[in-house]
């Protein structure tokens, strides 16, 4: 199951790369740099998705106290942080050519930056010392609270009337939405699908690794306990 | 509910009483605020004319940095001899610990602000001419939100051995909305009075944040105190 | 009445308690004995509500202790390895604070009485910070009983106490016993254990290996049983 | 003397080893720096054009605030189980405790700066075009002076129950000369390159401060560790 | 040889020690007994170099301990109420660190040997954080003797130890005694004290009220003397 997913992912990824770099049209103003758009937006969406998963599984954990829920939340947060980091690097690379600056303190960018720190903090709580039950419980509480920032990031450009960061989907206050060509849109949607799949594969892999670690730990303790007897 | 408030007040009373005798947290926060002001005045050249523009930021930077000292202490002081465990085994609602600690922290922070803010105005030679009641409201709402989340996260980080390091890094991102809102409304009140109409949206943002987080923290606190 | 039902505890993949079943009737005084690291403190913490079992549960007065049950917490007095006292407050202030949390009546009188009982009356208003080990332990004991609990959980209560204080403590335990208080005590001092306890539970490596009643107050017999079982 | 260095290195080794395993202090300082940058950015409106002027100040404000976390930890971690007493009763020169702790703190702070300063430049869109070697020298001297005094005062405040509160308020006034010198030389290097000739007097001020305080702290440390 | 000359200690206007004169010859094993708050720990702290007397001084091997004398510190092994261990380090790491400070030879071998001796070999590489009270006390004891001190100062060393560990400790003390180590021990457990000590010092309220030798190992006699003097 996992294996086949990986193969599907590899194939789809190459298709996506083809779509991005060859099939879709080159944007008139920004040129080739605009291609980063697909990764940028894709990563952002997956980061949101990942944090959503953290949120849901945190609630589930507090209700059911199953270790697997905690594990999923933790791994999802790590993947989310990774993709946020991608957004935070592709954004500036793009910004360098679009706005002629690496970074500006604009609402969308600032809130994304905060999002990054929020989930780093979440990971820090997970790395605290002590029993896993305690860490899982505290992390879950924090995972619930920190999700509040996700809608804020999404709405940032819509609330604050940003002049810099573009809006493509939905209604913008002043720009009209949908300033995107059909082929670009298709490519984008395809990329979104592929990156989401990537997320799923990573999540599975992460859970697998975590399980193995636990099993190894278990064996180690068992041997130790046998030795003591 | 009455029991909850009663035990919350017992906790607030214990903390404020200890504080009253030593005045340690209060004076430390005060001195620390003073030092931050001085440090900033080196770092940001206060002879500069644009200095008035940084006053709103200063008010909140001071509140937060000094506040963190107090928040940390509020739960670190429960760690010696594991006295937090003493609270956990006692027959009180966990939320009353939250409520009690929130109150004592909030009171201390308000007292500190009562001194530092006039001091800041004097040192930076600023004459207040905005609406003072609105200004107090903004201070109240901003500090309430900050302490509300801060108390909660201080309790969370108190579970860690190195809580005094953990608290700032989990606190800052969560309070960023209220800090932004507080700085913006203070700026509008103190400097850009012409933008007054957008003040109310900031204030309602703060009120919403306070309410939301207070309810959240109040009910989630039980999970933090769980063992 | 306390009953533990297949209590299990694992921390970090390490089994600390393994299927602990104990039934304690009201008014019994039980000594829990066993080598270091056997899991004695862990059992007490679970019964006292300071730790959750990984599996199994505790029943107190036939109610499963699952949620944060204030009624049950009020019945329990817990003395752990740490004193739970506030260092910058005096004995009176400490006890008054805890008394308020437990909603004790006639608090002021009672607090003074208790402090006198353990011989700290001359240090009544000094901060606990400056106390010697034994003085702290004395105060920690009265902290645990300020609300007249009907279940008393004591983890090595004789630690650091001098002869006189040990005697006071033993008398106090016997008095509570007459009042039908259920008492669970962990100790390494067999001589003190035999003074107050009738029933003993022997633990080793997270399991109960023996559970017997010994009414003849013979410390040599107890020691023999202990050494035979624990080695 | 050889013994002194040997035991100092044993202490440095213990601290850095524990740090290497957890990377706790390091990563906390890093994240905290990031957060201070963000907090300042909304407290002090960085879209403002004069923002470049605050970069030198920011570098040092970040170093100091993040540094305080590490300094605190460095001695708080010796307080559990009174392990500092274990060092006091052992046959080592008290100064070797100072030297050992100084080294481990200094190394950690340098590592943190290696990441935060480039990040700061990127976030505030600053292009370095001064003399990079001189810049590194300034960083080195400034941080050395800060950590040298910081380690000393952290040990001093570790005697108090509430050391994490005490440290900042005793540290700030003492380090103000080195902070001023560091900010000024950084400013000259990064912004006002035309004032380069006054740079050397600032640098020699820093070098003098470092030397003076290192010797002072080294020899006075004995009195702090006294019982 | 340890000699205290009119030691006095006052903290915050409170007299804690009053004219303490003790002379301890090399190889003696001395039990210091007395009620809580008598000042026993304070004496040990002063001799161990953790506290300064307000008046008077301590001589060790005929040298007045005034300055920070590294040679003398190397001779002393000090076990206090607290363990001095680093919680995030394992037993091996803890002992290796302290061994380095005391410049112990063949450290690695020795550390393992000591850990084995107190029965912690299976916890050798686990952080001390997760240890039970007795396990910590075991490790604290070997920490104090890692450098083979010729003067051993023990403050309630039996606290929290189980029967087996107490026996190990007593044997260890007796072994040290044969090697002519001077041992000063504070304890409240008269039965343990009599096992190892020959000479006893009784303290009360900061003064020495008795100082006697008791070689017949009769705990009842010791108890009687104690109760008569201390009441
Ligand atoms: C510099 C750092 C940047 C960050 C942190 C950032 C962050 C984000 C985030 C979080 C999203 C997803 C939210 C959403 O879809 O509503 C997003 C979407 C997007 N970004 Fe960026 N961005 C950055 C730079 C840029 C630049 C330079 C451009 C182009 C000029 C750009 C163009 C877009 C576009 C077109 C979308 C899809 C937007 C939509 O419809 O909402 N971004 N960005
Ligand atoms: N947080 C923890 N993490 C890992 N192991 C732990 C933790 N707490 C306790 N343990 C382990 O559980 C075991 C039992 O500990 P416990 O404190 O219950 O022992 P005890 O019977 O009270 O011993 P003592 O007589 O020494 O007090 C020990 O082996 C200890 O190492
Ligand atoms: N820092 C301090 N400030 C004030 N008084 C102190 C301080 N430290 C100790 N004391 C007092 O000194 C007295 C002796 O303390 P010490 O710890 O030496 O007693 P001890 O004989 O070891 O008692 P125990 O058997 O309980 O351990 C006590 O009355 C204590 O209150
Ligand atoms: Mg125990
Ligand atoms: Mg003592």
- Helices and strands of chain A, in order, run as HHHHHHH
The shape of chain A, in one word, is globular
Can you give the helix content of chain B as a percent range? over 70%
Shape of chain B: globular
Strand content of chain B: under 5%
Largest sheet properties of chain B: none
> Structural class of chain A, please?
mainly alpha
Succession of helices and strands of chain B: HHHHHHHH
Give the cofactors and ligands. Answer: protoporphyrin IX containing FE, adenosine-5'-triphosphate, magnesium ion
Oligomeric category: heteropentamer
| C-alpha-based Rg of chain A, rounded | 20 Å
The radius of gyration computed from the alpha-carbon positions of chain B, rounded to a whole number of angstroms, is 18 Å
Q: What proportion of the residues of chain A form beta strands (DSSP E)?
A: under 5%
Structural class of chain B: mainly alpha
- Unreliable spans of chain A are 171-178
Main beta-sheet strand count, sense and barrel state of chain A? none
Work out the helix count of chain A: 7
Model description:
The complex is a heteropentamer, with 1 copy of chain A (229 residues), 2 copies of chain B (227 residues) and 2 copies of chain C (231 residues). Chain A is built from 7 helices and no strands. The radius of gyration of chain A is 20 Å and the shape is globular. Chain A is mainly α and 229 residues long. In chain A, helix 1 (2-23) runs antiparallel to helix 7 (182-228). Chain A has one domain. Chain A has helices at 2-23, 36-64, 67-98, 107-126, 132-146, 149-159, 182-228. Chain B has one domain (2-225). Chain C has a single domain, classed as P-loop containing nucleotide triphosphate hydrolases (Rossmann fold, 3-Layer(aba) Sandwich), CATH 3.40.50. Chain C is 37% helix and 26% strand. A 6-stranded mixed beta sheet of chain C has the order 6-7-8-3-9-10, sandwiched between helices. In chain C, a hairpin with a 2-residue loop joins strand 4 and strand 5. The longest helix of chain C is centred in the C-terminal third of the chain and has 16 residues, at 163-178. Chain C starts with a strand and ends with a helix. The model of chain C has no long low-confidence stretch (mean pLDDT 92). At the A-B interface, helix 4 and helix 5 of A face helix 7 and helix 8 of B. Bound molecules: protoporphyrin IX containing FE, adenosine-5'-triphosphate (2 copies) and magnesium ion (2 copies). One adenosine-5'-triphosphate (ATP) sits between chains E (11-12, 14, 16, 34, 36-42) and C (130-135, 160, 162).
